[in-house]
Amino acid sequence: MSTAFSLRRSCQGCAKSKRRCDMAAPTCSRCAAKGLTCEYVNAPLVGGKVSSSAAAVVGSSQIRPPLRLEIIKTHNHAIIRFLVGEFRDFPLIFSQHMKTHFIHPTLYEGGLPPPIRSIHAVCKLHQDGRLPAGVVLFDLLRRTSTEIHRQTKHAANFNELLACVQALILAQCALIFDDNVSSDESSEYAETTNERLVSLARQLWAQAPVQLSSTLSPYRAWVYAESVRRTIITCFVLSNVYSLRRRQYGLRTPFVDALPFDLRTALWDAPCADSWLAASAGLLPQASTMVSLHEYTGLLLAGRVHGPSPFGGLILAACKGVSLSQVPHPPVRDYFL
């Protein structure tokens, strides 16, 4: 079985020839000059309409550059409360299970990186109510997140940067959504951290590895790639939810709509590699299940996603302002009608 999981954005021709690709759409300059067929390995970076066929769901091979455009959107209070509750629970769930919608428990089997270890200790103290005498939760969170952000500037590689961003997400969730932290006291710092997270999410996407190691098993490669994708998406969703709670409106950008999304969200909860392989055996291959975030939410609204997961429900609420209970979905059999 192939383990060539890729986060590459350059076209396949340029990558094979080890040449720089300008990622122009529909054909890069090099392929156009040589009369070659230009194909991008990450076809999901497309914001097209969803059609009735699986091929159309995948989208064309065009990669469109992100637009510096932001569109104001609002959600009703029930949706905002749901989103705030989901993000408020992230630190508590992580302290108990070492898992969230964007951190997989097998991702750090070799040992927790320092930023993840630090934020886990803070989450445990918070959950157990065992803060040291004289320590204020806000001060502890601020010190921890400040130190983690400092580490992002000195990250030696992409994996260290990924761990720092994941830890910052958890710190920010506790900082801005915890009722024990004064909103007046933390608002200025929360705003700054929010801006940092959005910037770091773009940095993650820009620096994502071109090709994952062939030594990784299909399971480990998928967990790693999916963790990267989910971390980037969660950064933007968190920023949007913070704005919705604080200002009653959020911002939607074409860049976020174009982020890649794996339809097979149920695989995230497979308890082990064998279960993952068994569950994925009857599904469409990864290349056929990668869509853009915009396409995924469109499929959800159209009732074409089978057995959507809680993460899918979070994405739907954040992007479309719609509860998962409001949309139809067929039972789990496959991922397309």
What can you tell me about this protein's structure?
With 337 residues, this protein is mainly α. The protein has a domain at 77-248. 54% of the residues lie in helices and 4% in strands. The protein contains 14 helices and four strands. The protein has helices spanning 12-17, 29-34, 54-58, 77-97, 114-128, 137-153, 158-177, 183-207, 218-247, 254-257, 273-281, 286-289, 293-301, 310-320, and strands spanning 71-73, 250-252, 260-262, 290-292. The strands form two sheets. It has a two-stranded antiparallel ribbon with strand order 1-2. Helix 7 packs antiparallel against helix 8 (183-207). The two termini are 26 Å apart. Mean pLDDT is 80; it is low at 43-68.
Can you tag this structure with a few keywords?
337 residues, mainly alpha, two-stranded antiparallel ribbon, globular
**Arrangement of strands in the largest sheet:** 1-2
Q: Biggest β-sheet: count, sense, barrel?
A: 2 strands, antiparallel
Sequence stretches where pLDDT stays below 50 over 5 or more residues: 43-68
Q: How much is the radius of gyration in Å?
A: 20 Å
Structural class: mainly alpha
CA-CA gap between termini: 26 Å
Q: How many beta-strand segments?
A: 4
Shape: globular
| Range of strand content | under 5%
User: Strand-and-helix sequence, N→C?
Assistant: HHHEHHHHHHEHEHHEHH
* Helical coverage, percent range: 40-55%
The average pLDDT score comes to: 80
Tally the helices.
14
Protein name: Zn(2)-C6 fungal-type domain-containing protein
GO molecular function: DNA binding; DNA-binding transcription factor activity, RNA polymerase II-specific; zinc ion binding
InterPro entries: Zn2-C6_fun-type_DNA-bd_sf, Zn2Cys6_DnaBD
Domain Zn(2)-C6 fungal-type: 10-40
